[in-house]
Amino acid sequence: MNHPAPHTLRTVTGELRSASVRGPALAHEHLVLDLDRVGDGAAVLGAERHAAAVAAELVALREEYGLALVVELTCRGMGRDVRALSRIARETGVAVVAATGWYYEPFHTPEIDTLDVAALAGVLVREIEDGVDGTGVRPGVLGELGSHGDVPAPAEAKVLRAGARAAVATGLSVATHAQLGRGGLAQLELLTGEGLPAHRVSIGHQDLLDDPGVHRELAERGAYVAFDTVGKSGYQSDGTRLRLLLALLEAGHADRALLSCDISRHGYLRDAGGQGYGHLFASFLPRLRAAGADDDLIDLLTRRNPVRFLTGATVEEN
C-alpha cells in the first residue's frame, strides 16, 4: 500500500511537505457541500454560486493571517466536489486537503446497506489510492465519519469501522462528526478497536459538549479533541467554548486540541452576513490571547496540531 511519505500532506493539488505549512490551518471546514434535505437550499455551499465568495474569504485570510491550509471534510453523500476544491486551492494559494468517508446516518448512501465493513473499507481505499471519480484527486484524510447519540447506530458503527480499516491500510487519519458533541468516546473505541492508533483520530464538535471530563479522557487516550464549530452561536456561545478549551489546556492537553469554524451553509459566509471562516482568527483567538495564550500556544493550536494530526509526525516550531 502506498502510504504518504513521512511529514507529507496529501492535498487536492498534490503532496505538500509539512514544513511548507508556515501559517495556521482550519482543521474542520467545508468549502463546497450540499446537505439540503428539505429543499430550501440553506445547507449548501454551491460550486458555482458560492465558490467565488468562499475563495475571496480564503484569500483575505491568507493575506491577513497567513492562512496556509484548510482540512475540507465534505465526504460521500455530502455534495463533495473535488474539482471545485482544486480550483479554489489554485485560485487562493491556500492548500486544501480533501476527504473520503461517510457522514452520519441521515446522509448515508445506498452502498452502506448492501456492503459489509470490509467492502466499504475497500471503496475508501480505492478512492485514496486512485483518486475520486476519475479526477486523480486523492483524499488526504478520512472524514467526517459520523454518528449521533451516545452510541453509534449500527450503520454508523459500520462506517466508522470501515473508515478505521481504510486509515490503517493507507496511513491517513480519521476526523469524526459527533452530533452535538455526543458519542465521542464510543467513536474512539470503535476506531481504535480496528487497530487505528488514537493519535490518528480527531473527535469532532467537542465544543458543543459541555463536559470537560470527556474532553480530558479523549485527550488522555491520545485522540485529538476538536473545538471546531467556533462562532456558531446558535449551537453554543464562544464564551462556553473558551471556558471548555481553557479547561483542556489547563489539564495539560494543549497538544491535543484542534480549532475551526465548520462553515456548512452559505448563510455563514461573510458576504451573506455570517461570521465567515475568519471568525476563529478575528474574534476567538483574540479572546484566547486575552486569557493568557502566547504566540507559541496559538501556533501549536492552529498549525502544529492539525499538521501533526494529518501526518502522525512531529512538526517543527516556527
From TrEMBL:
Q: Does the keyword Transcription regulation apply?
A: no
The organism's superkingdom is given as: Bacteria
Q: How are cofactors bound according to the entry's free-text note?
A: Binds 2 divalent metal cations per subunit.
Q: Which PROSITE patterns does the entry mention?
A: PHOSPHOTRIESTERASE_2 (PS51347)
Residues noted as binding a divalent metal cation 1 in the record, renumbered to the chain: 28, 30, 144, 262
Q: Name the cofactor(s).
A: a divalent metal cation
The residues the record assigns to binding a divalent metal cation 2 are 144, 177, 205
| Keyword Protein transport part of the UniProt annotation | no
Q: Where are the transmembrane segments?
A: none
Pfam family for this entry, one = PTE
Provide the GO MF annotations for this entry: hydrolase activity; zinc ion binding
Keywords noted in UniProt? Hydrolase, Metal-binding
Membership in a protein family: Belongs to the metallo-dependent hydrolases superfamily. Phosphotriesterase family.
Q: What's the protein called, per UniProt?
A: Phosphotriesterase
Question: Which organism encodes this protein?
Answer: Streptomyces griseus subsp. griseus (strain JCM 4626 / CBS 651.72 / NBRC 13350 / KCC S-0626 / ISP 5235)
